Structure formats: C-alpha cells, structure tokens
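B., you asked whether I could sanity-check this one before it goes into the benchmark set. Here's the sequence:
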Amino acid sequence: MKYRCVFDLAGKEKEIARLEKESATTGFWDEPEKAQATMQQLASLREEVGVWRELAGRVSDLQSLLDLAVADDDETMLDEIAAEAEKVAAELNRLEFRLLLSGKYDRNDAILAIHAGAGGTEAQDWTEMLLRMYLRWAERKNFKTEILDSLAGEEAGLKTVTVGVAGPYAYGYLKAERGVHRLVRISPFDFSRRRHTSFALVEVWPDIAEDIEVDIDPNDLKIEVYRSSGPGGQHMQKNATAVRITHLPTGIVATCQNERSQTRNREVAMKILRGRLYDLELEKQEAERTRLKGKHVEAGWGNQIRSYVLQPYRLVKDLRTGHETADTDAVLNGHLDDFMEAYLRATMDEG
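And here's what the prediction gave me:
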C-alpha cells in the first residue's frame, strides 16, 4: 500500500516503542499531567497504527481470495471481492484525508467566531446564516457545539457569535474556513427586491486550554464584569456575570456572557483569549514565511475566500482552490467537506 509510506508506519511504531519504554520507567507517574498526556499520545498512536495494519490485512486477504477466484473462475466470489474492494477503497480514501490533518493542533476541538461585515442588517443576517451552516456541518459529524458568546443585531441576525466545536479533528477541518465569506442575493429586507452583497469574517482557532505556548502576563489583562445583554423578563441576569478580558499589548478582546456563573464566564473568556493569541502568533509566522517565499497575499478584510451567489445564478466557489458547486442549498445546510478537503490538499501541495 503506497500510503503506508506517506503515513510512515515504521516511524509511528518506533515512537510507540519509545513511549511504552518511557511509561514503564520508575517515577513515570510522579508528574501525573505529563504522564497522562504521554499515555493519551500512546493510545492515539496505537489506534492510528492499528487502523492501517487492519486495512493492510484486508488488502492482503483480498489478494489471496482474488487469486483463488480467478483460478476457479468463480464469478460469485469475484463479485463479492469487488464489493469488498470498494469498501476498502472508501476506507483508504478516508484515511488518506486524515493524513492531511497532521498539524500540531489539528486533532483538537475548535473555537469558531463569525463577525458581520459592513452592510448592517444584511451582513448580520448573513452571519446568522453562516452560524446555521456550521452548526449543521457539526451535527452531520456528530460534533458537540456550544454558543460561548453572541451579540444580536438590531433588526435581525447577529453582529458576532463565538461557538465551541468539540469533536475529533474539529480544528483541522474548520481551519479551512478562516477568512471573509461573501454572499450575493436578493435581499429579503429590501422592498425593492434589489440584489445585495454581504460580507462576514470567520475566525477559527484551536481549543488548547492551558497547553497553549503563549505567555500571558496577568498584568497585561484588563478584566471587566457587566450584566449579560440577553433577553429581558425573568431570564434577564440581575447580577454582573458577563466577563470581558482585554489583552492590553495586542488589544485583543475576549468576552463570554452565556454562562450563569461569573467564574465560568471568566474561564471561557480566558480560553478564547488564549486561542486568539495563538492564532495571532500563527499569522505572524505565516506572514514571515510569505515574505521569505516572495508570494504576495492580500491581508485584511478584502481577503475573501469564498463566494456564495444565490442571484442571478446559484454557485458557491472557493476563490483559493477553484472548487465550486451549484448546489448552494446543500452547502448552506452544512455539506462543507469537499471544500475543506480541497483547501487542505491545496495547502499540502504548496507546502
């Protein structure tokens, strides 16, 4: 199997042996957190290797059965082998895609933020449409989602929303969505039925909690508490439980008001801040690589990655990869894997 070379099966097995030896040493559990992380890494490697070994065994068995079927001219057996070969090919394709998700934090959960661009109510409605799209995508993958923070628009939609997405490789998938998303449609808010263009910015960073390799000096933080701006009536928070944390050196702001406890809101806001600082560091590194590579990339709000056109024709096109589809309803209902895979393959080819 050619993908065993790409996967580096021998290297993975060597790493398993090293970790097993390390876990058997005296005093291994003296540092429980470090030991637990090592055991999780070991379990993950064993699972990866086991899957590829099992697949290689199925291919070997199929080859043996094929030799017998050909020798006996057994058409029934040949049909059964062909059906099994299709299943193996599908599994191989799935595993090959996983190889694209090999970044340091690709396995982690993700934090997704969507911000309305210029355009008032139009852009805010587009932000809510994108939120629905990503929630549907997560649901299709059996990922768990949690709205961490949100700010409603004056008339409709959302000005901004932050969502936690928990599931295997959530960040690895969703990092393909970072950038400006553009919508073209007949506005439901325009009585003249004119065509409008709306923009929303999608940010994604890994949920890495305390593992983030960014030092945060408590003296650099401005922490404010305030009353949540949720619905009124009996659900309105009487106490100041919402938390806003500003990282003074960078000006990055992280907020959370969706939990009832001020302590919990503070924890979530710190989690968001850590992720955003990590993402900022990644952007700096990418900018330096781009400078050295000599490739000019437009930065900022004008750097749209994907267009969703609903009028005068229907088309969703990723401007980075050229991948497109006319089935706009499917995309807006969360069928995003093809776009994500095209992006991941393109970035792997560039690397």
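One thing to flag: The domain at 218-290 is CATH 3.30.160.20 (Double Stranded RNA Binding Domain). Otherwise nothing jumped out at me.
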